Task: inverse folding
């Protein structure tokens, strides 16, 4: 099998494991990290397809995705810290009153 | 040949780190597994010739280290994490040195085509993203300030 094809399968596996982590784990911080893992899987597939196409614009796109992910983390961590300070727990079940 | 072996090793290490993220229970261990995964992905990018993306990956990994530093205790996994950091830095430095060398054709995902495309075609996107980052930092500070006022 071609090595780029193997990397596409690796990106699918990374995304699937991140999704599984978001579904299975109950710790809010771990769920955030698993979302980061999903993003990394998508980025890997983007880079592999850019390698196939030979497009320099894909590097810029990956850079922009990284910056948006950094902004997401910068917002998410203080929110999690606030929730933890309020409930004294990282378990997702403690925040059930947040729904709709 | 050695490139294929290194690429496969980095890919397997990334998948192994991702699997560890699902298995480990302590958030600090999960964060270290995420750091190892991101460093392995940086190695994959470097072996693919996308050195600029590899450098971004390491920078984002440093941001995640801040996320990991929320836990106060350090475990025995800190030493493998630091060793993985050093190995990734060595691989990145080697790839960067090769990309900056004058010999050899420029690749589409290298630093030079990225810089040219970035400055010529995507400067507006860069400005918009910088505004987004500033807004995110201000919003994070506002959230922290609200929490301080409510809880003293």
Result:
């Amino acid at each position: 099998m071609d090595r780029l094809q193997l990397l596409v399968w690796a990106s699918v596996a990374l995304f699937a494991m991140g999704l599984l982590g978001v579904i299975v784990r109950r710790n809010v911080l771990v769920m955030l990290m698993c979302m980061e893992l999903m993003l990394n899987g998508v980025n890997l597939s983007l880079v592999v397809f850019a390698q196939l196409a030979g497009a320099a614009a894909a590097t810029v796109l990956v850079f922009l995705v990284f910056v948006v992910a950094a902004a997401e983390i910068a917002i998410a961590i203080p929110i999690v810290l606030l929730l933890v300070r309020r409930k004294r727990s990282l378990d997702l079940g403690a925040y059930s009153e947040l729904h709709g | 040949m050695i490139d294929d072996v290194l690429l496969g090793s980095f890919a397997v290490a990334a998948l192994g780190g991702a699997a560890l993220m699902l298995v480990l229970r302590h958030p600090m261990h999960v964060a270290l597994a995420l750091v190892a995964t991101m460093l392995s992905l940086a190695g994959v990018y470097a072996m693919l010739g996308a050195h600029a993306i590899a450098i971004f990956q390491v920078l984002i990994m440093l941001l995640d280290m801040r996320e990991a530093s929320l836990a106060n205790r350090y475990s025995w996994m800190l030493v493998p994490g630091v060793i993985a950091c050093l190995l990734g830095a060595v691989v990145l430095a080697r790839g960067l040195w090769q990309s900056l060398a004058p010999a050899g054709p420029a690749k589409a995902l290298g630093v030079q085509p990225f810089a040219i495309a970035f400055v010529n075609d995507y400067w507006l996107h860069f400005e918009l993203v910088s505004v987004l980052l500033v807004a995110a930092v201000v919003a994070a500070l506002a959230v922290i300030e609200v929490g301080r006022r409510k809880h003293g």
About this structure: The longest helix of chain A spans residues 57-87. Chain A has one domain: 3-98. The mean pLDDT of chain A is 84. The helical segments of chain A are 3-24, 28-53, 57-87.
